[in-house]
Specification:
Blueprint: E1 3-5, E2 13-17, H1 25-30, H2 37-48, E3 53-57, H3 65-74, E4 78-82, H4 88-100, E5 104-108, H5 110-114, H6 116-120, E6 133-135, H7 140-151, E7 167-170, E8 176-178, H8 201-212, E9 216-219, E10 222-223, E11 242-243, H9 246-259, E12 264-267, H10 276-288, E13 295-299, H11 306-314, E14 317-325, H12 329-334, H13 341-354, E15 357-364, H14 371-384, E16 388-393, H15 401-405, E17 410-413, E18 425-428, H16 434-454, H17 462-484, E19 490-491
Parallel strand pairs: 2-3, 2-4, 4-5, 5-6, 9-12, 12-13, 13-14, 14-15, 15-16
Antiparallel strand pairs: 1-3, 6-7, 7-8, 10-11, 17-18, 18-19
Helix pairs in contact: 2-7, 9-10, 10-11, 11-13, 14-16, 16-17
The protein binds cobalamin and iron/sulfur cluster.
């Protein structure tokens, strides 16, 4: 049972991470677990406000029994759970257990923010509701006001729950009621560093190292993203873009190096480099503190250039993930991606010049995409030859513009998407079906492999070359053939291997 507590007594709150790798075949294969950063930030502010916290981390637990034991041992009156769409089922199972032990159950995170009713209306086998309150968007301020209200501390018992911003609950008529939206936290330096001491770091280190020969942990420097890609769920941090100071981030990196010495970190900002000056300040602050750690991050092709990439490289940047998505400007425009195909070419060139590994997220199956658009994506992949890429079949997440667009055609809204690969976000598309897109994924891959072998980027044995060629001919032929067949157009999302 993985629980760490700031008290030997009964904690004021138990926070619980419902990602059980044991229950997720894709996560088992990938084995790239990261600490539940959101919960660790909450734990820090709770602690700062004199609340004792126990942290249950399901990541390496075999089953839900361990949470049952944690509830028996720690007896928290309040349980706070986080959830993604992929962990909703697990999270609700834990909520049922917590409720059975009499706890007030609070939820937060991307999925409860996007689809609060799935939580608030969830019932156990006896038909009883198990979730009391959903906190939407950013949680640090809301959780403190809510804890003050629930515990009656700090004089806040007088505050009506309806006065606390950022909450959703069922009112007396059984309707989902939202209180006012909480404004985002402006001064990000005021948020203490995440309480990583409440996590079994060693378990993460060992599992990563066993699977990959190195280990990685995450940090976040900025919140929000000013862009508006239609399929991206930005419920939590929204379009406002806020960063902590470069010095604050560099200080956390210095501490990470000193305390844990990770082989690598992943900067989980939506985008690194929106504020160009910040990147150069960060560079200076990290160098000053001798805090450089090899890292990977996400950026956008319209933001990077050689000087910025050089600065990033000098403080450890090894790899950048770009949402390239498509080689067709028409599709990029339909997605409201806010980037141009030629910017993808320029970003790839600049990364290559500086020596940073280039990774593309590609997407297929976006409404309106035709065979010709797919050919343009193939051209992009074979011309620019990223070091690696993955291809996702577009899927409509609740709370996104894309979801609204295909709302009438949604066949299943993901309620029992039980693990990473088991996406049930099906919708009726105009033309092609899942089978078609699976072959497209293979086709993309083979075109890219063959192009890299021809350009000498990958040195392959004759046998591998022949196999890739054969795979290319078969996948090309299959794509052409299936494109001509009549079909139902039902498309199921396929998660990108490696994300
Ligand atoms: C880093 C990251 C990953 C990493 C690490 C995940 C991890 N364990 O930390 C990796 C690469 C592994 C990953 C995987 C996936 N991810 Co991801 N990921 C992110 C990313 C970029 C940052 C997450 C993060 O650390 N945020 C920082 C912390 C501080 O924020 P937070 O967790 O949201 O917490 C705050 C609030 O939500 C709230 N809060 C959260 N929990 C709680 C609980 C309570 C009680 C309260 C009061 C408040 C509260 O308060 C916190 C502090 O303000 C987000 C996008 C984003 N900008 O958030 C996507 C995101 C979370 N991922 C997403 C998805 C879809 C996935 C995958 C399914 C992708 C895939 N197909 O493989 C998998 C699922 C993995 C799994 N099995 O759970 C979606 C989730 C959408 C949804 N509705 O569920 C997001 C939002 C991206 C998007 N825009 O679509 N991901
Ligand atoms: S996909 Fe990336 S760039 Fe687009 S809105 Fe989401 S976070 Fe911003």
């Amino acid at each position: 049972m993985t629980v760490r507590s700031t008290t030997t007594d009964r904690p004021d709150i138990m926070l619980a991470n419902p990602l059980f790798i044991s229950k997720d075949p894709v996560e088992q294969k990938l084995m790239t677990p990261y600490f539940p950063l959101g919960l660790l930030y909450l734990a820090s502010v709770l602690r700062q406000n004199d609340y004792s916290v126990a942290m249950f981390d399901g990541t390496f637990e075999p089953d839900y029994d361990s949470f049952e034991r944690a509830m028996q041992q720690y007896k928290p009156k309040i349980v706070g759970l986080t959830a993604l769409i992929t962990t909703r089922n697990n999270a609700l199972k834990l909520a049922e257990i917590a409720k059975r032990h009499g706890a007030t159950v609070i939820f937060g995170g991307p999925d409860p923010t996007g689809k609060p009713e799935a939580y608030l209306r969830h019932t156990n086998a006896k038909g009883q509701r198990v979730v009391d309150i959903v906190v939407w968007d950013e949680g640090e301020v809301t959780i403190i006001e809510l804890m003050n209200h629930l515990t009656g501390r700090n004089g806040a018992d007088l505050m009506s729950i309806k006065q606390i911003k950022g909450l959703r609950f069922l009112n007396e008529h059984g309707e989902v009621e939202s209180t006012l939206r909480r404004p985002p936290i402006d001064d990000m330096d005021s948020i203490p560093f995440p309480a990583r001491d409440l996590i079994d770091v060693e378990a993460y280190r060992q599992n990563w190292t066993k699977a990959h020969g190195y280990w990685s942990l995450s940090i976040i420097n900025t919140r929000g993203c000013p862009y508006a890609c239609t399929w991206c769920q930005k419920g939590i941090f929204g379009r406002s873009y806020r960063s902590r100071s470069a010095e604050n981030s560099a200080e956390e990196m210095r501490l990470l190096k000193e305390l844990y010495n990770p082989d690598q970190i992943r900067v989980v900002d939506d985008i690194t480099g929106v504020d160009r000056k910040w990147v150069f300040d960060w560079h200076e602050a990290v160098i000053e503190r001798d805090a450089a750690i090899p890292f990977e991050c996400l950026s956008r092709v319209n933001l990077v250039d050689v000087p910025m990439l050089t600065a990033l490289k000098e403080i450890g940047c090894k790899k950048i993930y770009f949402g390239a998505e498509s080689g067709s400007q028409k599709v990029l425009n339909a997605m409201k991606k806010g980037s141009k195909v030629d910017q993808i070419y320029r970003a790839a060139e600049a990364c290559r010049e500086v020596g940073i590994h280039i990774y593309y997220f590609m997407m297929v199956g976006y409404p309106g995409e035709e065979m010709d658009d797919l050919r343009q994506s193939v051209k992009l992949l074979t011309d620019t030859q990223p070091d690696s890429f993955s291809t996702t079949i577009a899927y409509p997440l609740p709370g996104t513009e894309f979801y609204q667009q295909v709302r009438d055609r949604i066949m299943h809204d993901g309620d029992d998407w039980a693990f990473t690969a088991e996406n049930k976000l099906l919708f009726q598309r105009g033309k092609y079906n899942t089978w078609f897109y699976r072959w497209v994924q293979m086709w993309f891959h083979k075109e890219w492999e063959v192009a890299r072998a021809i350009s000498g980027k990958d040195k392959l044995s004759l046998y591998r070359r022949a196999r890739n060629r054969a795979g290319l001919y078969v996948s090309r032929a299959m794509v052409k053939l299936i494109a001509k067949l009549p079909n139902g157009g039902k498309v199921e999302f396929k998660p990108a291997p490696g994300r």
